[in-house]
Sequence to fold (80 residues):
Amino acid sequence: MLRLLFATLTALAIVGCTQPCDQQHLCALDGDRAICDGTHFRPCDDATRAEVVPCVTSPRIAVCTPSGWTFQSTPRGNGP
Fold:
């Protein structure tokens, strides 16, 4: 019984500590360096290379490069 309680509390702690991903959290990175695209966290890999995510908290965009997600300034501040 104690093990079940501990497992449940651990699961709740992990779920409760996750970064939200919605339109207010565009460009947020999770612990695996995946980026929030407004709906879900997207990894930077061969399938997403050169994709762009506009950021909302600053005049930047995130670009998936061979080095991972990199941030670039934009003159308009609202993406490409």
Residues 2-16 form the longest helix (15 residues). Confidence is low (pLDDT under 50) at residues 4-15. The beta strands are 35-36, 41-42, 52-54, 60-65, 68-73. The chain has one helix and five strands.
